[in-house]
Amino acid sequence: MTVVIGVDPHKSTHTAAALNARTNRTLESIRIDATLPEYRRLLVWAKRFPERRWALENAWGLGRHLAQWLIAHGETVIDVPSTATARVRELSRGGRRKNDNIDAAAAASVAALRGDAAPVEAEGPNTVLRMLDERRTNLTRQRTRTVNQLHAMMRELLPGGVSTDLTANQATDVLRRVRPSSPVERARKELARELVADVRALDVRLKANQQRMQDTVADSGSSLLDVVGVGPVVAARLLGRTGRASRFRTAGAFAVHTGTAPIEIASAGKSRHRLSRHSDRQLNNALHTIALTQVRMPGTRGRIYYDGKIAEGKGHKEAMRCLKRRLCDHVWRTMIADEQCHTSGAGSGGHSGATTKSCAAGSTPHASSSDQSLPEPAIDQITAQPAPAA
After folding, report:
1. Which residue blocks in the chain are alpha helix, DSSP H?
2. Measured distance CA(123)–CA(142) in Å, rounded
3. 3-class SS of residue 103
4. For tag attachment on the chain, is the N or C end more exposed, with fewer CB atoms within 10 Å?
5. What is the predicted pLDDT for the residue at 80?
6. DSSP string, 217-245
7. Which NCBIfam families does the record match to this protein (predicted)?
8. How far apart are CA 328 and CA 129, in angstroms?
9. Would you list the DSSP string of 308-349?
């Protein structure tokens, strides 16, 4: 008998429910505290079911610690989104009534039915890159806020302030020439010096963060850095937020996740296409950065493709959307190839649930706003090397 153990995690407690995968009937439940001794008690309780797997609601949130602990002890763990458990509760009970036991059983039910669930793997370099990317985002926001404060202070010290592209060295040179004439002016100058020191410290942290990103990407064996327009920061965002690329079975599924796959809408009796707003905007921003960099570099495959779309009569935004769609496929294929190379090198045979077959067949359609399908040769044209000179 296969048993799915659903877990509803909270900050201080976890509730688990064992569900018969064949009959969808709850067998037993247990409630534990979120501590290591209680984790061991939970595992001892679960061992009464020899054929078992775990389904954790929000395994990358409140359930992350328990999920990683179970994986370290050889257990199979599946991540179930909270939206999926909410649908199960609504359909099975006909209402919004819930408690911890109901949520745990709903998570197990989703996993038993092979619904919206994804396998959880042990944390690795991609997790490190995701944390570094989040840290860089926070540092960048803090630096922007500090620079804005410095601009406001300099505007009060000098008539008209200073230029918008102010650097720490420029601010230091300006402050050297400021001669305060009152205690208030001296206080302003001292505060401005403190803000300049803060900007310098943030610049050092951002530089160190980028170096750690580059080292981690290199250690992971990724070849994304060979793609034109992909630097350490963009590669870290792509790898960190994507995780295991093979969890997307096709390039089209990855394009939907990144928001580069156009969707058809009807307006005023006419059919047109636009990009989905329900996507990972950070990944979409990374792909936009790659496309923008290639367009700005004459001779790259991306620029040649962009010029071809412009010659067809498309506008700048339409051509950029087409380029992003093709770059999305190329990035996914690169990550899949790296993953398969790493897996085969580890001796597991390179098994992957994804397929590198093109997400569409046939020629490029004549959509007015973006490409709807991607023929195989066009995807391979956007490579890391510039086009040969004529």
Report:
1. 36-46, 64-72, 82-93, 100-112, 125-157, 168-176, 183-220, 232-242, 251-258, 281-295, 301-311, 316-345, 376-381
2. 28
3. helix
4. C
5. 87
6. HHHHT--GGGSTT--HHHHHHHHHHH-SG
7. transpos_IS110
8. 19
9. HHHHTT--HHHHHHHHHHHHHHHHHHHHHHHHHHHHHHTTST
Q: Give the residue carrying structure tokens 């098994």.
A: 351
Question: Around Cβ 152, how many Cβ atoms within 10 Å?
Answer: 12
DSSP state of 119: E
How many angstroms separate the CA atoms of 340 and 356, rounded?
11
Query: What does the alpha-carbon distance between residue 144 and residue 346 come to, in Å, rounded to a whole number?
Result: 43
Q: Which residues contact 378 (CB under 8 A, 6 or more apart)?
A: 305, 326, 364
Amino acid letter, residue 115: G
Q: How far apart are CA 246 and CA 373, in angstroms?
A: 20
d(CA 223, CA 227): 8
* Cα gap 370→262, rounded to integer Å: 7
Closest listed residue to residue 101, CA positions, set 8, 208, 199, 24: 8
- Sequence letter at residue 261: A
> Under 8 Å CB-to-CB from 89, ≥6 apart: which residues?
95, 96, 97, 98, 102, 103, 106
In contact, 133 and 236? CB cutoff 8 Å = yes
Q: Tokens 């077959």 map to which residue?
A: 357
Is-contact 104 15, C-beta < 8 A? yes
Q: Tell me the pLDDT tens digit for each residue of 293-345.
A: 999 999 999 999 999 999 999 999 889 999 999 999 999 999 999 988 877 76
CA 287 vs. chain centroid, Å, equals 11
* Identity of the amino acid at 3: V
Give the mean pLDDT of the chain.
Answer: 83
Query: What are the tokens at 69?
Result: 């602990």
And the tokens for 184? 């208030």
Name residue 382's amino acid.
Answer: I
Number of residues that this document lists for the chain: 390
